[in-house]
Amino acid sequence: MATEAFAPAKINLTLHVTGQRADGYHLLDSLVVFCDVGDTLSAAPADRLSLRVDGPMAAGVPDDASNLVMRAARFLDLSRGAAMMLTKRLPVASGIGGGSSDAAAALRALSALWDVPLPSPEETLPLGADVPVCMTPRPQRIRGVGARLCPVPDLPTADLVLVNPRLPVPTPAVFGALTRRDRSPMPEELPRWPDAAALAEWLGTMRNDLEAPAIRVQPAIADVLRVLRAEKPLHAAMSGSGATCYALLPAGQGAGLAETLKAAHPGWWVASGAILRDTG
Ligand code: ATP
């Protein structure tokens, strides 16, 4: 029986860079959510392991052993086969964790297909710093290099509109341009936000420390933020290392803004969806 798993976009609502380890890994403190926009990974029984990639964002995505989906399959079981199909809808190298979410989806689909236990989030860290958080697509706080996870319950319902200027931004270049000296984390205790407006007000007091360096690497990010903020959402900021930016809106209002932006900026990738609040 074939299995299928959804790989939702991962959005860093905040991203505080709190330090750097001697081995070069940056230490983070980030509020992460997932949005019901994403890639799909299906896996069917087969003698050998294979991957095909299709979908609107498939161009340039490797279908060989370097794809994170193939690496995840080999991580789960070195010897078994499966015919995998990845439908790519998330832009590549865009700060919304597409590859990491695909890897987590592959682990979910293949553990069901092969009837082998799913690794714990922490165990998946060798596949990439963002893979552990993608193992359970629900609001979480991540600290350290990415494996210190803490669920954030009771996040208010809200929509996100995601906008990418279709310009890939390599994460190492953005960390290389980071000069900020404020390394303070988020408050130890996160507040309980009664609604999306309260969450947005709090987000306005937090940071994405990668936003300024990402704009230095790719100035078009500043244009995206200007356009989003002109629409007066509850809040707008960049996700991860960019270039994707998000606008936070009350539940049900994302699709309308997405249509407006698509019409005004046909060259941009624009998507909208609700924040995923359950483990799914
Ligand atoms: P993050 O938010 O975790 O920094 P990202 O969204 O910026 O991630 P990805 O889309 O995961 O970046 O792509 C990063 C690189 O990984 C690309 O250069 C791409 O060639 C490679 N890659 C490997 N597997 C995949 C995959 N399944 N989907 C997308 N990119 C992949």
Topology:
Layout: E1 3-12, E2 16-20, E3 26-45, E4 49-54, H1 68-76, E5 82-87, H2 98-114, H3 131-134, E6 140-144, E7 148-151, E8 158-164, H4 171-176, H5 196-203, H6 211-217, H7 220-230, E9 235-238, E10 245-250, H8 254-264, E11 269-274
Parallel strand pairs: 4-5
Antiparallel strand pairs: 1-3, 2-3, 3-5, 3-6, 6-7, 8-10, 8-11, 9-10
Adenosine-5'-triphosphate is lined by residues 61-62, 67-69, 92-100, 102, 130, 171, 240-241.
Strand content: 25-35%
Q: Structural class per helix/strand content?
A: alpha+beta
Counting copies of identical and different chains, the oligomeric state is: single chain
* Number of discrete helical segments: 8
Small molecules bound: adenosine-5'-triphosphate
Largest sheet: 7 strands, mixed
Active site: 10, 130
GO biological process, one term: terpenoid biosynthetic process
EC number: 2.7.1.148
Binding site for ATP: 91-101
Walk me through this protein's architecture.
The structure is a single chain. The chain has 280 residues and is of the alpha+beta class. The chain folds into two domains: 3-142, Ribosomal Protein S5, domain 2, CATH 3.30.230.10; 153-274, 2-Layer Sandwich (Alpha-Beta Plaits). It is 26% helix and 28% strand. It has helices at 68-76, 98-114, 131-134, 171-176, 196-203, 211-217, 220-230, 254-264; strands spanning 3-12, 16-20, 26-45, 49-54, 82-87, 140-144, 148-151, 158-164, 235-238, 245-250, 269-274. The strands form two sheets. Strands 1, 2, 3, 4, 5, 6 and 7 form a seven-stranded mixed β-sheet that branches. The chain has a four-stranded antiparallel β-sheet with strand order 9-10-8-11, with helices on both faces. It is globular, with a radius of gyration of 18 Å. Adenosine-5'-triphosphate (ATP) binds next to helix 1 and helix 2.
